[in-house]
Amino acid sequence: MARSGKAATVLCLDVGCNMSNSASDEESSLEQAKKVMTKFVQRQVFAESKDEVAVVLFGTDGTRNDLASGDQYQNITVHRSLMLPDFDLLEDIQDVIKPGSKEADFLDAIIVCMDLLQKETIGKKYEKRHIELFTDLSSPVSEDQLEIIIANLKKTGISLQFFLPFPVDVDDGGGDTSASVHSQMHRSSFPRKGLTEQQNEGIDVVRKLMHTLDEGGGLEEIYTFRESLERLSMFKKIERKPMAWPCQLTIGSNLSIRIVAYKSVIEEKVKKVWTVVDAKTLRKDDVQKETVYCLNDDDETEIQRDDTIQGFRYGSDIVPFSKEDEEQMKYKTEAKCFSVLGFSRSSQIQRHYYMGNQVLKVFAAKGDENAAVAFSALVNALDELKLVAIVRYAYDRRCHPQIGVAFPYIKDAYECLIYVQLPYMEDLRQYIFSSLKNNKKCIPTADQLSAVDSLIDSMNLVYEDDDGETFEDLFKPSKMPNPHFQRLYQCLQHKAFHPNEPLPPIEPHLLEMLEMPQVVKERCQAPLEKVKALFPLKEVVKKKEEKTAQDIFKDNSEDGPNPKKPKIEDEEGSFSIIKLAEGKVTS
What we know:
The chain is of the alpha/beta class.
């Protein structure tokens, strides 16, 4: 459950003269690379990541790095040292970084990046260190120090990734088939036949470098700009550090097990950082807020806040309720607790009873062998007997207690209890509706039932192979980011750089994200047509009563009010209170 440590990443960008070349109807490689870098930094900024990012440029007109001497490591510039990514870095990528007129060896640039990472991470704790290199491989490259670079990358544990405007084919048998598929998926992003001799030489060096670093999957760390934009188009979710909640699981008054719980699922909400600023200066300090309390009288008499008290509306009256009353009313909980009230069959807990905004995973306390044995026995017993524990849960003494259910959950790697809140009586809504079976018109035919069954089968989101052994989830909500957050971050980023422009349209991938998978859409067409044929829909037009002009504009002033229509008592189906009072007369 430990959170992954922070990482140090160097974005190494080729700004040489060839990177800015492009066809008239295409973006240059430099612009594509800057887009990928922008997406990467955006994800880090909005995810509030603690990872630090540096930027190194090669192919620049000038030189600024610690290794530069004589004619060594020239035209390589450390544009930004390791620090947290921010909007200043985004502005630099978009507006400050310009194409250069020189060329530089990308292997020399890798050495400068390695030197930067080594010096700026001394004495600091980083779990990972990366170099991400963006280039079109058009500059000359020397393999003199290739073996030294490989040895140092392995020794220091620095990972390397290449981002190119074209895929690197795996056609020499040196890589694995997955890398070949990885390359084939994005072959259309660049015409392979248009590469220069220098680029082909650069590809050979990259292939040799990455394959030597990792014989199994090194070539999978080579990405195209197009592929990277697709992957980075989603803003990264905010990383949360899991906070342990230690407590005692009690069963009765004599059995107590030390436990620790973590929030496994909880609703993520937008961080409320909105504030009011002056429209002209955009400064928060220029806006002063003042709250005044006044009586609801003709003079709007001003009173002090200490002279007010909160009230609770009860019908048409307001019942005064002070803070002292509120404190006395609160349910007093002695301390946090996780007490088992009893056990129930798992089948008794209906799925629609689950409520609350979080799910807890409960484990035995770390390092306590006795607690681990007792907790494991409880979890396995519940699982074998198909039982669940009904639990009284209180986070601390300030919180109201909850009633919840704890399910046993056993995996190969661990065992735990899953806690979900259950409703109280007031939380349940009981609705009774008449059965459709009571109406003969609503009873479906066998053909209609079969058609609906076929439609449901065709819309199955779990793909199963012909052998019935391989399954694939076609729609994974747990891997799907919240479209609301994605749209918000997109708009905030746009407004940060273009404050006077209207918001951009919603990006297509956000709209496509919640669409039906294409495979399912094609598969369900035939069953859907059958359902339409068996369940025909007819538009029911309500007939309006025809009114003449005489009915609308009639004038009754001359003839007086219309006489009431006489009611015929003997009319069939008529009802009268008099009839109820009348008795039968017999002779």
